[in-house]
Every structure is written in structure tokens, then in C-alpha cells.
Amino acid sequence: MSAAPRRAARLRSLRWKIVLLVALACASMALTVGLLVHESVLRRSLHEGSGKALAALAQARDEAAATSTEGPVRTPEELPEALLRQVERDGEATLYENEPPAPVFWAARKEGGKLYAVEADMTADLLTRQALDRHMWKYSLLTLGVVVPATALATELPARRLRRVARTARRITAGDLDARTGPMRGGDEVTGISAVVDSMADSLQRRIDTEQRFTADVAHELRTPLMGLVTSAGLLPEGEATDLVQDRVRVLRDLVEDLLEISRLDAGAERAQPGPVALAGLVRDAVARTGLAAHVTERDPAVVETDPRRLDRIVSNLVVNAHRHGAGPVEVEVSGRTVTVRDHGPGFPADLLADGPRRFRTGTAERGRGHGLGLTIASGQAGVIGAVLDFANAPGDGGAVATLRLPPDGPAPGDGPGPD
């Protein structure tokens, strides 16, 4: 995965969703509180400004009466229209104007046919409110700057524990049945998920171990009487019935040998014995030993470091499977370090493409959809030599395509020869 998708995946993680949610909650709370405080302070300021203006009007009238002067008498042209309308209606009115050069609060009263009015300067009040707004914005941003990183740090530990559980689950899915999350401190939901994943892995490993032991035991128990059956079938007089019996005995012998090979692959007892191999020549020989028709083409074939016996087994099984469950012509292409086997039948079933080979499933109608032991063994042996075996269906006229890609440096040498 490239850097950009990794960053996108991290941003979509539960941790960053929690951080975003906390940030949104803090921002919403700060905005709500800020608006409430701003409106409350504004209402109080307007109330105080109205009282201040009315008090100034009363004081100015009293001073004018004491000195026998006109005092705060104004002409209508000097007053705002909104203030005049209120005075005409109520006899007394106040009006706040936040206009240049300075905000003022008007107070006016009509008395004895005269219009009295004063204005109170509200500049200090406006500056106080603006300073309060700035401080609220500043400290809200400061709070976000503290809360968001703190939330990110606080969610790192549970996110790391969840990633640990996810890595364990992926390893189990990939076939590592020994993978465990291990004990975790705390009694939260993450600890519970970890315990369930480990318990599931233990149960799955027990079931698979039981299946492997059963397969190995059945194959070993059948091997001894089968050898006697093969010997006895060889002593029968020639005839059509004898040929039929010997053919069925050979099929049974091959099945038991396949079961034994699968049990060794399941137990991890197989070890590669690599050596230099001319890939094109080995593929031609493997195809020839099957006795089946296949057209082999070469394109820059390589000399590879691999186990020739296991590679021969893989190619043979792929060619046999193509003939048994596909349709001719069967084509085998050797290109560099890649071997491709294609038939022109109906192609691999969907469950094989989705889940890979499964034993005791064939592509024939009488045995159900899927495949038999051949592809299971081929996949297992590919893993032993470090190769990758992919299955697909060809576009256009269709057909099953099995592609074997050998590693660039070959498999690591085994500890010794695997059991035969």
C-alpha cells in the first residue's frame, strides 16, 4: 500500500474519528457559550446604556431649569428618524446607534411642545465587548489546541491495542494458527475482543489438529492393507476383470499417497532441497511423465534455484487437473520464472477463485463443484518452495488459468530431506 492510501486509512481510523468528534464537541460548546455570553453582555450593555442616557437627559433638563436656559432642546433634523417616531408615539424613547465616528445611546423626551434629547458616548462599552469577544475566541482556540492533542494521545493506547488484535486476526486468516494477541491489561471491550480472538484461534487450532491427525492416521492405517491389495492384484490372471481391479487399486493407492502427502504438508514436515534447475526442461519432462497432451511454449526461460521434485509435482498436478476438469487444448507456457497452465473448459468455480483450493472437492458434476486433492497438493508444495500459485479464469473464450511464480532467489535450504 502506498503512502497516500495508508494516510487515508489512518485518517479513517476509529482513533481519528474520536479526535474529530471531541474537537467538534469542544468547538460547538465554545461557540454556544460564546454566543450566549455575547448576547447576555450586549443586552446588559444596552440596558445600562439606556439608563445612562435617560439619566443624562434628566440631569441636563434639571440643570437647564436651574439656570433658566434652553438646555438639551433639539430640532427634529438633529435626531435619528427612528428615535423621532418612538418619541411621537410614546413621548419618551431611547435608541442605540453604532455608527461612525462613535457609538452613542440617544435619549429623547417631548414635553411642553419642546423636544429634549441627549446622547451618551458608548465607545468604552463597545471596546469592552470587543475585548471580551477576542478573549473568548483566543481561549476557545487555546482550549482546542490542548484538548485535541490530549485526546489523540489518550486514544493512542486503545487504538494500538485494537491494531494488535487486528494483526493477530490477519495472521490467523493467513494460516498462522500459532498467532495470539496475548494478555492485555484492563477490563474494557478491547480486552474482551482480544480474549475472544485468542479463544477462537485456540478452538480453530484444536479442530485443525484433530482433522490433520485423523487424515494422517487414516492414510497410515490404509497403507499396509493397501500394499497387500496391490500385491494380490498383481497376482490375478490376466483379463478384463483383472484390469478393472488393478486400475481401481491404483486409484486407491494414489489417493492414500495423496492423503499422506497432505498430512505432511499440514504438519509442516516438508522441507525443500533446492538446486539449479533449467525451468523449461523440467516442465517438458513433467508434462511428458503425465502421458497427457499439452502444448508447451517457451519465452526467455530461466534457470531457477528450487526443489526439482516438488516443482515437477506441482506442474504434473496442474496438467492432470486441466485435463480432468477442463477441456483441451491444454497449453503450458514457460516465461522467465513463471509457469502458466491453461485449459479451454468452463474455468475454475467461483468458490475456488474466492477461497482457494479445498480438499475432496472436484470440478465434476457428480462430485460437486470445486476441485480435488491435486490443486491442494500443488498449493501446498508451492508454499514449501516459496512460490506463489494463483488461479483465475481467462477472459474471452474462457478456460481455467493456473499461474506459478517462482521466487527470485529460490527457497531457503531445508533442514534436511522431507519424509517420502
Automatic annotation (TrEMBL):
Sorted UniProt keywords: Kinase, Membrane, Phosphoprotein, Transferase, Transmembrane, Transmembrane helix, Two-component regulatory system
Catalytic reactions of this protein: ATP + protein L-histidine = ADP + protein N-phospho-L-histidine
Domain spans labelled HAMP: 159-209
InterPro entries with a match to the protein in the record: HAMP_dom (IPR003660), HATPase_C_sf (IPR036890), HATPase_dom (IPR003594), His_kinase_dom (IPR005467), HisK_dim/P_dom (IPR003661), HisK_dim/P_sf (IPR036097), TCS_sensor_his_kinase (IPR050428)
EC number: 2.7.13.3
Cellular location(s): Cell membrane
Residues covered by the Histidine kinase domain: 217-410
GO cellular component: plasma membrane
SUPFAM superfamilies: ATPase domain of HSP90 chaperone/DNA topoisomerase II/histidine kinase (SSF55874), HAMP domain-like (SSF158472), Homodimeric domain of signal transducing histidine kinase (SSF47384)
One GO MF term: phosphorelay sensor kinase activity
Record keyword NAD present: no
EC class (word): transferase
Main location: membrane
PANTHER family in the record: SENSOR HISTIDINE KINASE TRCS, SENSOR HISTIDINE KINASE YKOH
Listed name of the protein: histidine kinase
Naturally occurring in which organism (per UniProt): Streptomyces termitum
Lineage of the organism: Bacteria, Bacillati, Actinomycetota, Actinomycetes, Kitasatosporales
